[in-house]
Protein 1
Amino acid sequence: MTAESKSPGKACLGGILGIMISLTYSGCFSVEEPVSVQDGAGREWQSEVEKELVISGLREGDPWSLAHLHLALPEESELQNSRDQLHQLLSDIDSVIPIHGDHGERGEQHPHLLLRTGVLLQGPVISEALRNRTQQELSKTSYVKEWRAVNDYAWLLDAAARCGLKRQVLVLDGTLGDLVDESIRTLEQGDAVISSILAKSPTLETRRPAGLSDPTVAGCWAFTCGGTHLLGALVECALSDLILPEDRKRIDALLSNFEKRLRWDLNYRHLERDRAIRAGKSSRKADRNFGLAQIKVLGHGLEVLSRARRLYPEDSQVFSSSMNQMLQELENLFLSGRYPGFDPVALLQQKVSIENPETWERAHGDLSHLIRGLRLAKDSSKY
């Protein structure tokens, strides 16, 4: 949810131990070993990143930056005043939810990003005021066919699901159920476009479709963060019974395809780094770009699959292979000296936000998702 790929006026916001990842492409979920998440207190890099996220997020102070900061650290004591102000804002049915802040075009600028953030921070019990505000926003919403607008529905669907709203709730040109069903079709179409790409292991010659491309070319990769926000919202819809029983298998299929895409993307990013270095590019720059790309995949992947595990309470090991692979990738990424050009704490500092704001956005947004993904992998019950 960062500025890695941008649509007009918006930003959508080596190898493991020297061995390339071995990929398998099957139609079933990974069900091997249980997921083991190290306590965050045991990761020196995580503590440093969390401290710098608070400093940089409060320093920037715009809606996009604060929304990501709350996502990463929903119980951070230094953010209590900001949480209180956000709740007060959203609880006023007549208030205007700010989008841009002083930075104008930071992040995707989705109108409902703060709404979803406020709902998420309340946990399992949502106030009547926030439920009413979410329903009001739904009543003004139409399923716009222009594909870039699809990105905004992720936040509204997520908020509606967490508020426990029903499929019959009205939107501008139909119902919430219609919005959910159309979102499923959108991701299915995106998966179909890139299925032939994911069917083969990437090589040094492979080029992934650019995120700025139309979905008819880039499939799910065209949407914000590869469509992970919309898929995550559909997971929340499934957890809240907004998915029709006959469509649950379609959610299963989307999640299975997502696993394939995660494995493919992780492998591809290693090859992309190797290709840049072989072409004579700076190894430090290659490390930085590789690290930024990896934290995007790892953070969003852990978020989606951690919550999705709750859809299969009878299977404690579902998605475990993919999640353990991501956790191992993460430990290798932050291993001291492995990628000298990737310094996430440095990327969050004010100098970077001034001189290279898009790099700062990528770091702040995706590190926020990564911290949240690690927390959910350990305990997916809230936030």
Protein 2
Amino acid sequence: MTNIIPNSKKINVLIDQWAERVFIVLLFALPKLNLKIGPLPIYIIDLVVIYIWYKHRNRGFIKLKWISIGLLSLFILHQLVFLFFTGDLSNVIYISIRHGLPLLSIPLMPYVLINLRSDRSQKTLIIAAIFTSLTSVFSSIPATRGIVKSLISYPFLYPSIEKQFEKKGVVEEAIRSLSIIGVSNVTGVLILMSIGILLYLNHYNSPIKYLNIIIPVLLAGAITTYSRTVTISLLIMLLVYFMKYSGNRLLKTLLVSGLFVISLLWNQLVEKSDIFNFKRLETAFFQADDESDNYTHGKNERFESYTKPFQTLTNKPIFLFIGETMNTTKSKESIPFVNLKFNPPDHSLFGRAFYMNGFFVALLYLLILIFLIIKSFSDLKIGLVIIPVIVWSFFAHGMISSPNGAYMFFLIFAFAKYPFILERKVLSKPEVISNIQESKND
């Protein structure tokens, strides 16, 4: 009996580690992997989160738990209000699971980061990120886009893939990339996140083999998203990297050479619109006067996502406590007294959180964003990991509207709260790690 107990503990620890590695694979490569049971898909990443939560339900990081409880309580309140006024039970059940689990996962994210300190988990992250990067590159090039389209057209990999491709236009046109992660800015931000994490691990944990090859491959995936948000994030990250990271002259030489080649061939890349889509970036950054109505509308919507909510709050004070709820994205029903009957400008974390959840919840998300900004300025090496999510939060709403985006957002929030988790070798006992976090940080 004395030998059985330790062995069973080892098996449990091993299963826990594998569950966290599976979460890494799903988050960075296959977030929409699902099983179709009845009319709705059951997402594997949600099942993994439920398992990890069950294993760590009696341990954890107290401050993150309180944040999780607060956001989750307000979210459940919104669901009950929507159910009371619409009676759409199936919608409430689906939204509660899909969008509630990321909120439940907030105190679990440090355990995923702890797992990333092991060589196997780092290799898992690298493989997942490279896979996403390659699908991004291939889907952006007309010659190879058909391969990626056939790959991710399988419903168990991406339930809504056909609708996404219909929005992108014909196959022959150069497009913003689409990976299994989703649309271009989410894909690019996730790739940049992986780059930041790998550079941080390489500096504080242990050297990563072939990093000088891995980073350029990942950068290619980020660049071919042709996303303004991703491009701005990438330029800031490059500046920070050259400022704060010493050594690795080969990687720095490769990065400078790549920037030089792109700058030298910029006009040719823009003109090759049948192969590349640098024309989009050219128009967005250098030809403001010639922008189309779509570009102008997009810029206005981003600006108004910070001003329009206050006008809405003046006209409808109820938005102080409640918004239209996420349910309206999947249902024809709506709560009568918060139904705006128009598409609100919500192309930012604040705008989306306000119109979906009300001003109070939007303020909580805004406080988290401010914390991320302060943390980035306090240590630029930490900031290198956080920058993509900060820029993304200013110009997009995926961290609110997408469950995978929410997982991404809270993973980076956990890193910003406990960055030293990635700075030491893995400890053998999870309960010891938990106690260290509790005593030193909470």
Protein 3
Amino acid sequence: MKRNWKFLGTGWDRTTYLIDERIVLKFPKNAIGEECNIFEALNWFNSENQCIQTKLIKINGFQCAVQPYLKPVDNNDKPDWAGYYDGQQGGLDKGGKFKIYDFPPNWMGNAIRAYGSYMD
């Protein structure tokens, strides 16, 4: 099966792809990436409507995050509260509301690297 996914970017623990013009897939590169995906899927609704909805799907045994695509915005157009999230990584949803798309706590990756993962 040929996938026409567009590469969006990669970080320490996850690689992201645009599946179509509406859906982003976050594929984990390691256990930390998988735990970040799980965290986002379990916690997006606790963010006072600041984070984008996230769902999990399993691909080849890996927990992948799926989110609606957010339209990029200039850093000057981001709300002040965006600074509470790693890199202020967010954009506009289809309703024009600013949402964060990368929101595991900053300490999470460091703690897992130092103490290990429950998945190890």
